[in-house]
Design brief:
The protein is α+β, with helices and mostly antiparallel strands. Helices cover about 60% and strands about 15% of the residues. The protein is rod-shaped.
């Protein structure tokens, strides 16, 4: 799906493409790709790079065409190992041409358009659009991090009551998400530093870049904090599991030792040997009583030493 936006003095849709407008392409179809290739003459390999979900944040320039790949946060709709991840957003620039391509429909882009329409000022040029996309991505990283923190606290509350495999797996998935986040944010920061010298930046853009840098730093630091908290939490629960397992093994060993004693007595007196009490009426009660007495004695000793 493609949408044409007039970016001067507001954000309004257009019926067809005009030079200087913003072309927003989401989940491109064959018709969208043909329009980009035939009408705008965009290099075909640009879309191939954007289509790669693992493509890193980078800048490329060739024959007047600029390709900027920005990593943005994304929440998968289906259950997966990493529900919170990042995807590439491609920005293609040339004289009079400004195109954004994303192979996924994201809340960030929907919110970006809505906010710019409420703002009512539009964009001064395509460079202003690029840096505002950077700013929006940093803000959405912070939003997603808040959601991850809520999931983290919920999992910790559940684990405080009982250690469940599902909650531990959930923490592991959050750990993977934070790894994707911090890697993508660092890549975006490096890309932002490079674009300062690659794009024609004016005074207003410089102020916007400073705001973006602050938001990016905050997103990176927040991600690192949550990652450290999660690592500490996983280590703590791993220690608890090991301690619980050690306690269970200690109890099982103590019970085995206690049960071994009456078994030993029964084995000795159960052998086909003459002991002198096999013909007496009190023989059986003495053996049973002795077994119970020794069992009780060792149970008391183990209990006093907190071994059981």
């Amino acid at each position: 799906m493609r949408t044409f936006w007039n970016i001067n003095k507001g954000l309004r849709t257009l019926e067809e493409w005009t030079p200087g407008c913003w072309v927003q392409v989401t989940c491109p179809s064959k018709e969208d790709e043909e329009f980009l290739f035939n009408e705008l003459e965009i290099p075909t390999y640009f879309l191939d790079d954007i289509r790669d979900k693992d493509e890193r944040a980078r800048y490329e320039y060739e024959e007047g065409w600029s390709l900027i790949i920005l990593r943005i946060p994304y929440v998968k709709e289906v259950r997966s190992r990493t529900p919170h991840t990042t995807i590439p957003l491609g920005i293609i620039l040339n004289k009079g041409i400004c195109v954004t391509v994303c192979n996924y429909e994201t809340n960030m882009m929907i919110d970006f358009v809505s906010y710019q329409q409420k703002r009512g000022l539009g964009f001064t040029d395509s460079v202003d659009l690029v840096f505002r996309l950077f700013l929006s991505s940093a803000v959405w990283y912070l939003k997603r991090l808040k959601q991850i923190n809520v999931l983290l606290e919920e999992a910790k509350r559940n684990l405080d009551h009982s250690i469940d495999n599902e909650d531990l797996i959930g923490l592991s998935r959050l750990q993977d998400s934070l790894t994707y986040f911090v890697t993508s944010i660092r890549g975006n920061e490096t890309l932002l530093s490079k674009l300062k010298f690659k794009l024609p930046v004016d005074e207003l853009d410089a102020e916007l870049i400073e705001d973006v840098t602050i938001e990016m730093n905050q997103a990176r630091e927040t991600t690192n904090i949550y990652a450290n908290i999660l690592d500490s939490t996983m280590e703590t629960y791993a220690s608890i599991i090991n301690n619980n397992m050690a306690g269970v093994m200690k109890q099982m060993t103590s019970i085995s030792i206690i049960l071994m004693l009456p078994t030993l007595i029964a084995s000795i007196f159960g052998m086909n040997l003459l002991s002198g009490i096999e013909t007496e009426w009190w023989g059986m009660p003495v053996v049973v009583g002795g077994s119970l007495l020794i069992t009780g004695l060792f149970y008391w000793i183990f209990r006093k030493r907190a071994w059981i």
